[in-house]
Design a protein that fits this description.
Blueprint lengths: L3 E5 L3 H19 L7 E5 L2 H10 L2 H17 L4 E4 L8 H7 L7 H10 L5 E5 L2 H5 L2 H10 L2 E3 L3 H13 L8 H16 L4 E4 L17 E3 H14 L1
Parallel strand pairs: 1-2, 1-3, 4-5, 4-6, 6-7
Helix pairs in contact: 1-10, 3-4, 5-7, 5-10, 8-9
Length: about 230
């Protein structure tokens, strides 16, 4: 089994979900008392959040690269970033690494492509929805168009992530807001929805959605296990 290096804490709420998924999937695949061979470096999300809000992406790229190098030096054979937004750093990180970075957008693009959907709703942090890195990969590599909610709805999605889910707060009223936004996306032509923040699956799942929902956390963890087990 190859060793997985996880960059966590972005937030720790979703990082614990990754850890649970990885170990559960390995146990299901290998049976017995098997569990995942992995190492985690977990960051202080408060520091990352401040730099994100300030637009200090260069500092974040450098920090992410340094973390990945430490994981590589500790024996990690693949790097898994336990967050969608911080895949902004992936292209820069790859330049300094000799092990691969498992890109969450490429993983979810393959999952959607297999279902032949051409237009999907993208939910995530403000950065994921408004910056181009996620949408460009879906379009250029997979021929998938990503729709995003209007500004008010983007603010709602983002604020629930940062002010509630990042703190482990799960509210029924917030779930309803997400479901309403997904229904709007469906009316605008979305054939499916990407839960494009690793905290969103803490709040909603396929059971809450009338259209197919693609869970980036689960698909990312699944791909990591497939790599680890060869």
């Amino acid at each position: 089994m190859k060793k997985i290096g996880l960059i966590g804490g972005i937030t720790w709420q979703s990082t614990q979900l990754y850890y649970q998924l990885l170990n559960t999937m390995v146990a299901e695949e290998l049976g017995g008392q098997s569990s995942c061979h992995c190492i985690i470096e977990s960051v202080n999300f408060a520091e990352f959040s401040k730099k994100q809000a300030a637009g200090d992406w260069d500092a974040l790229h450098k920090e992410m690269t340094n973390i990945a190098l430490r994981l590589q030096d500790a024996g990690a054979e693949i790097i898994v970033i336990c967050a969608n937004t911080m895949h902004l750093s992936a292209p820069i990180m790859k330049k300094s690494l000799t092990v691969p970075v498992l890109h969450i957008v490429e993983v979810i693009g393959k999952a959607i492509q297999g279902k032949d959907f051409k237009k999907v709703l993208l939910l995530g942090t403000r950065y994921t929805m408004e910056m181009d890195f996620f949408k460009d990969i879906l379009r250029d590599q997979f021929g998938i168009e990503a729709l995003v909610p209007n500004k008010n709805d983007r603010d709602t999605v983002h604020n629930i992530i940062y002010n509630e889910l990042a703190k482990g707060m799960i509210k029924d009223e917030s779930r309803k807001k997400y479901v309403d936004i997904i229904k709007k996306g469906e009316r605008e032509g979305a054939q499916a929805v990407i839960l494009g923040c690793t905290e969103i699956p803490l709040l909603i799942s396929q059971a809450d959605c009338e259209i197919p929902a693609f869970d980036t956390t689960k698909e990312h963890a699944k791909a990591a296990v497939e790599f680890a087990l060869g």
